[in-house]
Design goal:
Layout lengths: L13 H10 L3 E7 L7 H15 L1 E6 L13 E2 L1 H4 L22 E3 L5 E2 L7 E3 L2 H11 L4 E5 L1 H12 L4 E5 L14 H22 L2 E6 L6 H9 L4 E3 L7 H13 L6 E5 L11 E6 L5 E3 L2 H15 L7 E5 L11 H19 L5 E6 L2 E6 L14 E2 L4 E2 L10
Parallel strand pairs: 1-2, 1-7, 7-8, 8-15, 9-11, 9-14, 10-11
Antiparallel strand pairs: 2-3, 4-5, 4-6, 12-13, 15-16, 17-18
Helix pairs in contact: 2-10, 6-7
Bound molecules: 6-O-phosphono-beta-D-fructofuranose.
Length: 400
Protein backbone atom coordinates (compact mmCIF):
# COMPACT_ATOMS: atom_id res chain seq x y z
CA UNK A 1 0.00 0.00 0.00
CA UNK A 2 1.31 3.45 -0.90
CA UNK A 3 2.30 5.38 2.19
CA UNK A 4 0.48 8.68 2.01
CA UNK A 5 2.25 10.38 4.86
CA UNK A 6 5.80 9.87 3.68
CA UNK A 7 8.54 11.43 1.73
CA UNK A 8 7.32 12.75 -1.66
CA UNK A 9 7.12 16.30 -0.33
CA UNK A 10 10.79 16.80 0.48
CA UNK A 11 12.44 19.91 -0.85
CA UNK A 12 9.22 21.67 -1.86
CA UNK A 13 9.03 25.42 -1.25
CA UNK A 14 6.19 26.65 0.99
CA UNK A 15 4.17 27.66 -2.07
CA UNK A 16 4.79 24.33 -3.81
CA UNK A 17 3.79 22.44 -0.68
CA UNK A 18 0.54 24.38 -0.40
CA UNK A 19 -0.20 23.85 -4.09
CA UNK A 20 0.50 20.13 -3.73
CA UNK A 21 -1.98 19.88 -0.86
CA UNK A 22 -4.58 21.95 -2.68
CA UNK A 23 -4.32 19.72 -5.71
CA UNK A 24 -4.36 16.51 -3.68
CA UNK A 25 -7.84 15.10 -4.19
CA UNK A 26 -7.94 12.54 -1.36
CA UNK A 27 -9.13 12.96 2.22
CA UNK A 28 -7.19 15.53 4.25
CA UNK A 29 -7.13 16.62 7.87
CA UNK A 30 -5.05 19.31 9.60
CA UNK A 31 -3.23 19.13 12.94
CA UNK A 32 -1.47 21.61 15.21
CA UNK A 33 0.01 21.74 18.70
CA UNK A 34 -0.63 24.87 20.77
CA UNK A 35 0.80 26.15 24.07
CA UNK A 36 3.83 24.71 25.84
CA UNK A 37 5.28 21.52 24.40
CA UNK A 38 4.46 18.40 26.37
CA UNK A 39 6.01 14.95 26.33
CA UNK A 40 3.66 12.79 24.27
CA UNK A 41 2.93 15.21 21.39
CA UNK A 42 4.90 13.06 18.98
CA UNK A 43 3.16 9.92 20.20
CA UNK A 44 -0.11 11.72 19.37
CA UNK A 45 1.17 12.32 15.82
CA UNK A 46 2.15 8.67 15.59
CA UNK A 47 -1.40 7.65 16.45
CA UNK A 48 -2.87 10.16 14.00
CA UNK A 49 -0.52 9.04 11.22
CA UNK A 50 -1.18 5.33 11.76
CA UNK A 51 -4.95 5.83 11.75
CA UNK A 52 -4.63 8.17 8.76
CA UNK A 53 -2.66 5.50 6.91
CA UNK A 54 -5.34 2.94 7.65
CA UNK A 55 -8.17 5.19 6.52
CA UNK A 56 -6.46 6.93 3.60
CA UNK A 57 -6.08 10.44 5.00
CA UNK A 58 -3.33 12.90 4.27
CA UNK A 59 -2.29 14.65 7.49
CA UNK A 60 -1.39 18.32 7.03
CA UNK A 61 0.56 19.79 9.95
CA UNK A 62 0.55 23.53 10.64
CA UNK A 63 3.82 24.93 11.86
CA UNK A 64 4.02 26.39 15.38
CA UNK A 65 0.40 26.09 16.42
CA UNK A 66 -2.11 28.73 15.38
CA UNK A 67 0.83 30.87 14.25
CA UNK A 68 0.97 28.73 11.11
CA UNK A 69 -2.78 28.99 10.55
CA UNK A 70 -3.51 32.71 10.91
CA UNK A 71 -1.16 33.81 8.11
CA UNK A 72 -2.10 35.21 4.70
CA UNK A 73 -0.42 32.06 3.33
CA UNK A 74 -0.53 29.24 5.92
CA UNK A 75 2.81 28.06 7.24
CA UNK A 76 3.05 24.29 7.11
CA UNK A 77 5.41 21.78 8.60
CA UNK A 78 6.67 18.85 6.61
CA UNK A 79 8.10 17.26 9.75
CA UNK A 80 5.49 14.51 9.87
CA UNK A 81 6.44 13.45 6.37
CA UNK A 82 10.17 13.87 6.76
CA UNK A 83 10.35 12.27 10.16
CA UNK A 84 11.43 8.74 10.75
CA UNK A 85 8.46 6.39 10.96
CA UNK A 86 8.84 5.89 14.71
CA UNK A 87 7.91 9.03 16.59
CA UNK A 88 6.30 7.92 19.85
CA UNK A 89 9.46 7.98 21.92
CA UNK A 90 10.57 11.49 20.91
CA UNK A 91 10.16 14.46 23.24
CA UNK A 92 8.76 17.90 22.38
CA UNK A 93 6.58 18.47 19.34
CA UNK A 94 8.26 18.09 15.99
CA UNK A 95 5.78 20.40 14.25
CA UNK A 96 6.48 23.24 16.71
CA UNK A 97 4.15 25.15 18.98
CA UNK A 98 3.30 28.72 19.99
CA UNK A 99 0.84 30.64 22.11
CA UNK A 100 -0.67 32.57 19.24
CA UNK A 101 -4.42 32.94 19.86
CA UNK A 102 -6.57 33.29 16.71
CA UNK A 103 -9.00 35.69 18.38
CA UNK A 104 -6.20 38.04 19.44
CA UNK A 105 -3.34 38.02 16.96
CA UNK A 106 -0.58 40.64 17.33
CA UNK A 107 0.86 42.17 14.17
CA UNK A 108 4.09 44.10 13.63
CA UNK A 109 4.22 47.38 11.72
CA UNK A 110 4.46 45.45 8.44
CA UNK A 111 1.41 43.32 9.26
CA UNK A 112 3.37 40.17 10.09
CA UNK A 113 2.06 37.96 12.90
CA UNK A 114 4.12 38.25 16.10
CA UNK A 115 4.49 35.09 18.16
CA UNK A 116 4.81 36.98 21.44
CA UNK A 117 2.16 39.10 23.11
CA UNK A 118 2.84 42.78 22.49
CA UNK A 119 0.22 45.27 23.65
CA UNK A 120 1.91 48.07 21.72
CA UNK A 121 1.29 46.12 18.52
CA UNK A 122 -1.86 46.11 16.41
CA UNK A 123 -4.32 43.38 17.42
CA UNK A 124 -6.63 41.54 15.10
CA UNK A 125 -9.24 38.82 15.39
CA UNK A 126 -8.17 36.20 12.86
CA UNK A 127 -10.64 33.41 13.55
CA UNK A 128 -11.85 33.77 9.95
CA UNK A 129 -8.31 32.93 8.79
CA UNK A 130 -8.65 29.54 10.45
CA UNK A 131 -11.74 28.86 8.40
CA UNK A 132 -10.10 30.00 5.17
CA UNK A 133 -6.94 27.96 5.82
CA UNK A 134 -9.11 24.86 6.26
CA UNK A 135 -11.13 25.63 3.15
CA UNK A 136 -8.27 26.69 0.89
CA UNK A 137 -6.32 23.51 1.67
CA UNK A 138 -9.43 21.36 1.34
CA UNK A 139 -9.17 19.95 4.87
CA UNK A 140 -12.12 18.26 6.52
CA UNK A 141 -11.18 19.90 9.78
CA UNK A 142 -8.43 20.57 12.27
CA UNK A 143 -7.16 18.48 15.16
CA UNK A 144 -5.98 20.70 18.04
CA UNK A 145 -3.61 19.16 20.57
CA UNK A 146 -3.37 21.71 23.33
CA UNK A 147 -4.02 22.89 26.84
CA UNK A 148 -6.80 25.02 28.25
CA UNK A 149 -5.92 28.10 26.20
CA UNK A 150 -5.61 26.26 22.90
CA UNK A 151 -8.77 24.26 23.46
CA UNK A 152 -10.65 27.34 24.71
CA UNK A 153 -9.72 28.89 21.36
CA UNK A 154 -11.06 25.63 19.88
CA UNK A 155 -14.40 26.20 21.69
CA UNK A 156 -14.71 29.64 20.09
CA UNK A 157 -13.87 28.26 16.65
CA UNK A 158 -16.37 25.46 17.11
CA UNK A 159 -19.06 28.01 18.05
CA UNK A 160 -18.34 29.60 14.66
CA UNK A 161 -18.95 26.22 13.01
CA UNK A 162 -15.29 25.73 12.22
CA UNK A 163 -14.67 21.97 12.27
CA UNK A 164 -12.23 21.17 15.08
CA UNK A 165 -11.60 18.26 17.42
CA UNK A 166 -9.45 18.50 20.55
CA UNK A 167 -6.82 16.44 22.30
CA UNK A 168 -6.13 17.45 25.94
CA UNK A 169 -2.48 18.14 26.63
CA UNK A 170 -1.15 19.61 29.85
CA UNK A 171 1.90 19.03 31.95
CA UNK A 172 0.00 20.84 34.71
CA UNK A 173 -3.00 18.45 34.64
CA UNK A 174 -5.10 21.45 35.51
CA UNK A 175 -8.31 21.21 33.55
CA UNK A 176 -11.14 19.02 32.38
CA UNK A 177 -12.37 15.75 33.79
CA UNK A 178 -10.06 13.63 31.70
CA UNK A 179 -6.39 12.72 31.55
CA UNK A 180 -4.19 15.31 29.87
CA UNK A 181 -1.14 13.75 28.25
CA UNK A 182 2.21 15.12 29.40
CA UNK A 183 1.45 15.21 33.12
CA UNK A 184 2.90 11.82 34.00
CA UNK A 185 6.26 12.56 32.43
CA UNK A 186 6.32 16.02 33.97
CA UNK A 187 5.77 14.59 37.47
CA UNK A 188 8.37 11.88 36.77
CA UNK A 189 10.95 14.54 35.98
CA UNK A 190 10.28 16.35 39.26
CA UNK A 191 10.33 13.11 41.23
CA UNK A 192 13.66 12.18 39.63
CA UNK A 193 15.12 15.55 40.53
CA UNK A 194 14.03 15.34 44.18
CA UNK A 195 15.36 11.78 44.41
CA UNK A 196 18.76 12.96 43.14
CA UNK A 197 18.84 16.06 45.31
CA UNK A 198 18.29 14.01 48.45
CA UNK A 199 21.85 12.70 48.45
CA UNK A 200 23.43 16.15 48.43
CA UNK A 201 20.86 17.46 50.91
CA UNK A 202 21.70 14.60 53.23
CA UNK A 203 25.46 15.00 52.80
CA UNK A 204 25.37 18.64 53.83
CA UNK A 205 22.41 18.53 56.19
CA UNK A 206 20.64 21.09 54.05
CA UNK A 207 16.93 21.50 53.44
CA UNK A 208 16.14 21.33 49.78
CA UNK A 209 13.30 23.38 48.35
CA UNK A 210 12.15 22.16 44.93
CA UNK A 211 9.93 24.47 42.90
CA UNK A 212 7.68 22.74 40.40
CA UNK A 213 5.56 24.13 37.58
CA UNK A 214 1.78 23.97 37.35
CA UNK A 215 0.53 27.55 37.29
CA UNK A 216 -2.63 27.82 39.43
CA UNK A 217 -2.87 24.09 39.92
CA UNK A 218 -0.97 22.14 42.58
CA UNK A 219 -1.40 18.71 41.04
CA UNK A 220 2.28 18.38 40.05
CA UNK A 221 3.38 19.53 43.51
CA UNK A 222 1.02 17.20 45.37
CA UNK A 223 1.93 14.11 43.38
CA UNK A 224 5.66 14.91 43.38
CA UNK A 225 5.49 15.47 47.12
CA UNK A 226 3.68 12.20 47.76
CA UNK A 227 6.03 10.25 45.48
CA UNK A 228 9.12 11.64 47.22
CA UNK A 229 7.61 11.65 50.72
CA UNK A 230 8.30 15.36 51.04
CA UNK A 231 8.07 16.97 54.47
CA UNK A 232 6.09 19.92 53.14
CA UNK A 233 4.01 20.36 49.98
CA UNK A 234 2.84 23.87 49.08
CA UNK A 235 0.23 24.37 46.38
CA UNK A 236 -1.48 27.43 44.86
CA UNK A 237 -4.89 26.30 46.10
CA UNK A 238 -3.96 26.75 49.78
CA UNK A 239 -2.26 29.89 51.09
CA UNK A 240 0.26 28.84 53.70
CA UNK A 241 1.27 30.45 56.96
CA UNK A 242 5.06 30.77 56.75
CA UNK A 243 5.60 30.67 60.52
CA UNK A 244 3.59 27.43 60.83
CA UNK A 245 5.54 25.79 58.01
CA UNK A 246 8.89 26.90 59.44
CA UNK A 247 7.92 25.45 62.82
CA UNK A 248 7.13 22.06 61.26
CA UNK A 249 10.51 22.05 59.55
CA UNK A 250 12.36 23.29 62.65
CA UNK A 251 10.68 20.60 64.78
CA UNK A 252 11.73 17.93 62.30
CA UNK A 253 15.32 19.07 62.76
CA UNK A 254 14.95 19.14 66.52
CA UNK A 255 13.73 15.54 66.36
CA UNK A 256 16.88 14.53 64.52
CA UNK A 257 16.05 15.00 60.86
CA UNK A 258 19.23 16.05 59.08
CA UNK A 259 17.39 17.72 56.24
CA UNK A 260 13.88 18.44 54.98
CA UNK A 261 12.39 18.23 51.51
CA UNK A 262 9.95 20.96 50.54
CA UNK A 263 8.04 20.78 47.25
CA UNK A 264 6.50 24.12 46.31
CA UNK A 265 4.36 25.07 43.31
CA UNK A 266 5.46 28.03 41.25
CA UNK A 267 2.04 29.56 42.01
CA UNK A 268 2.04 28.91 45.78
CA UNK A 269 1.55 32.01 47.94
CA UNK A 270 1.96 32.60 51.68
CA UNK A 271 -0.68 34.39 53.73
CA UNK A 272 -0.08 38.07 53.07
CA UNK A 273 2.46 37.24 50.35
CA UNK A 274 2.35 37.55 46.58
CA UNK A 275 3.02 35.38 43.54
CA UNK A 276 6.60 35.42 42.27
CA UNK A 277 7.27 36.11 38.59
CA UNK A 278 10.41 35.33 36.66
CA UNK A 279 9.64 38.06 34.14
CA UNK A 280 7.45 41.11 33.84
CA UNK A 281 6.19 39.88 30.47
CA UNK A 282 3.08 37.81 29.83
CA UNK A 283 3.07 34.91 27.41
CA UNK A 284 1.17 34.90 24.12
CA UNK A 285 -2.04 33.82 25.86
CA UNK A 286 -1.69 36.61 28.42
CA UNK A 287 -0.57 34.32 31.26
CA UNK A 288 1.92 35.72 33.79
CA UNK A 289 5.33 34.01 33.75
CA UNK A 290 5.62 32.48 37.20
CA UNK A 291 8.91 31.54 38.81
CA UNK A 292 10.86 32.17 42.00
CA UNK A 293 8.49 30.93 44.71
CA UNK A 294 11.06 28.31 45.77
CA UNK A 295 13.95 30.75 46.03
CA UNK A 296 11.79 33.25 47.95
CA UNK A 297 10.63 30.53 50.35
CA UNK A 298 14.21 29.29 50.83
CA UNK A 299 15.42 32.79 51.65
CA UNK A 300 12.80 33.24 54.39
CA UNK A 301 13.39 29.75 55.75
CA UNK A 302 17.13 30.50 55.99
CA UNK A 303 16.35 33.65 57.96
CA UNK A 304 14.13 31.64 60.31
CA UNK A 305 16.84 29.01 60.86
CA UNK A 306 19.49 31.64 61.50
CA UNK A 307 17.27 33.64 63.88
CA UNK A 308 16.34 30.50 65.82
CA UNK A 309 19.79 29.03 66.24
CA UNK A 310 19.50 26.17 63.74
CA UNK A 311 22.53 27.40 61.83
CA UNK A 312 23.57 29.23 58.68
CA UNK A 313 23.64 28.05 55.12
CA UNK A 314 21.37 25.06 55.58
CA UNK A 315 18.82 25.70 52.82
CA UNK A 316 19.10 25.47 49.05
CA UNK A 317 16.47 25.76 46.35
CA UNK A 318 16.18 24.33 42.88
CA UNK A 319 13.65 24.81 40.07
CA UNK A 320 12.52 21.90 37.95
CA UNK A 321 11.50 24.43 35.29
CA UNK A 322 11.44 23.29 31.69
CA UNK A 323 13.08 20.03 32.69
CA UNK A 324 9.45 18.96 33.43
CA UNK A 325 8.70 19.09 29.72
CA UNK A 326 12.05 18.05 28.31
CA UNK A 327 13.11 14.75 26.87
CA UNK A 328 11.35 11.53 26.01
CA UNK A 329 7.81 10.87 27.27
CA UNK A 330 7.36 8.04 29.72
CA UNK A 331 5.30 4.97 28.97
CA UNK A 332 1.98 6.45 30.17
CA UNK A 333 2.26 9.52 27.97
CA UNK A 334 3.36 7.47 24.96
CA UNK A 335 0.45 5.08 25.27
CA UNK A 336 -2.21 7.70 26.09
CA UNK A 337 -0.73 10.10 23.56
CA UNK A 338 -0.80 7.45 20.83
CA UNK A 339 -4.35 6.40 21.68
CA UNK A 340 -5.43 10.04 21.83
CA UNK A 341 -4.07 10.48 18.29
CA UNK A 342 -5.97 7.41 17.09
CA UNK A 343 -9.10 8.53 18.96
CA UNK A 344 -8.96 12.04 17.53
CA UNK A 345 -8.88 10.52 14.05
CA UNK A 346 -11.92 8.42 14.97
CA UNK A 347 -13.71 11.65 15.94
CA UNK A 348 -12.74 13.07 12.55
CA UNK A 349 -14.04 9.96 10.77
CA UNK A 350 -17.30 10.20 12.74
CA UNK A 351 -17.45 13.94 12.01
CA UNK A 352 -17.81 14.64 15.72
CA UNK A 353 -16.68 18.24 15.30
CA UNK A 354 -16.62 20.29 18.48
CA UNK A 355 -15.64 17.29 20.59
CA UNK A 356 -12.46 16.12 22.24
CA UNK A 357 -11.02 12.77 23.09
CA UNK A 358 -10.50 11.91 26.74
CA UNK A 359 -9.52 9.07 29.03
CA UNK A 360 -11.55 8.68 32.18
CA UNK A 361 -12.07 5.77 34.56
CA UNK A 362 -10.35 3.36 32.18
CA UNK A 363 -12.40 4.38 29.15
CA UNK A 364 -11.57 6.42 26.05
CA UNK A 365 -14.47 8.78 25.52
CA UNK A 366 -15.67 11.61 23.30
CA UNK A 367 -16.86 14.70 25.14
CA UNK A 368 -17.75 18.28 24.17
CA UNK A 369 -14.67 20.42 23.76
CA UNK A 370 -16.24 22.93 26.19
CA UNK A 371 -15.49 20.58 29.11
CA UNK A 372 -11.98 21.99 28.88
CA UNK A 373 -13.25 25.03 30.73
CA UNK A 374 -13.60 23.04 33.92
CA UNK A 375 -10.56 23.93 36.04
CA UNK A 376 -9.20 20.99 38.02
CA UNK A 377 -7.69 21.94 41.38
CA UNK A 378 -6.28 20.25 44.45
CA UNK A 379 -9.23 20.03 46.87
CA UNK A 380 -9.32 19.98 50.65
CA UNK A 381 -10.43 16.35 50.37
CA UNK A 382 -6.87 15.62 49.28
CA UNK A 383 -4.81 18.25 51.03
CA UNK A 384 -4.29 18.75 54.76
CA UNK A 385 -3.64 22.46 55.24
CA UNK A 386 -2.46 21.91 58.84
CA UNK A 387 0.27 19.44 57.89
CA UNK A 388 0.90 21.22 54.59
CA UNK A 389 0.90 17.79 53.03
CA UNK A 390 -1.38 15.17 51.53
CA UNK A 391 -4.42 14.21 53.57
CA UNK A 392 -4.10 10.77 55.09
CA UNK A 393 -7.39 9.50 53.74
CA UNK A 394 -8.10 8.24 50.26
CA UNK A 395 -11.25 6.14 50.39
CA UNK A 396 -14.01 7.55 48.17
CA UNK A 397 -11.92 10.60 47.39
CA UNK A 398 -11.14 11.87 43.91
CA UNK A 399 -7.49 12.12 43.07
CA UNK A 400 -4.88 11.09 40.59
O1 LIG B 1 1.38 25.24 31.20
C1 LIG B 1 2.61 24.61 31.10
C2 LIG B 1 3.71 25.43 31.74
O2 LIG B 1 4.88 24.64 31.71
C3 LIG B 1 3.41 25.94 33.16
O3 LIG B 1 3.54 24.97 34.15
C4 LIG B 1 4.42 27.06 33.25
O4 LIG B 1 4.01 28.05 34.17
C5 LIG B 1 4.46 27.61 31.85
O5 LIG B 1 3.94 26.60 31.00
C6 LIG B 1 5.81 28.01 31.38
O6 LIG B 1 5.68 28.50 30.11
P1 LIG B 1 6.89 28.86 29.15
O7 LIG B 1 7.29 27.60 28.47
O8 LIG B 1 6.32 29.85 28.21
O9 LIG B 1 7.99 29.41 30.00
Amino acid sequence: MKKINSKPFNHLTDEELIRFIQEYSGLKVGVLTGGGDAPGCNAVFQGILDKAEETGYLVVAFKDGFYGVVQELPKLSDALWDAPIDLSMRGGTIIGSSRVNPSKVFLDSEGRVIEKRDYAAKQENREAYVSSAIQSLGLEGLILAGGDNTLSAGCKLSALNIPVVGIPKSIDDDYGFVYAFGRHTSVDRAVGMVDYLRSTAESHGRDIVVEVMGRKCGRIALDTGIATHADIILTPEFEFLSSAVFNILGNNRKQGKRYNVIVISEGAVSVGGEEEYSSKDSDGYGEKILGGSGAAFAKKLSQFYRANGFGDDIVRSQQVGHFHRSGNPNEADRVRGYKYGVGAMELVLNKEWGSMIGYMNGLYISQPIETINHLKRVSDDEYDAQRCNTKLSVLHINGS
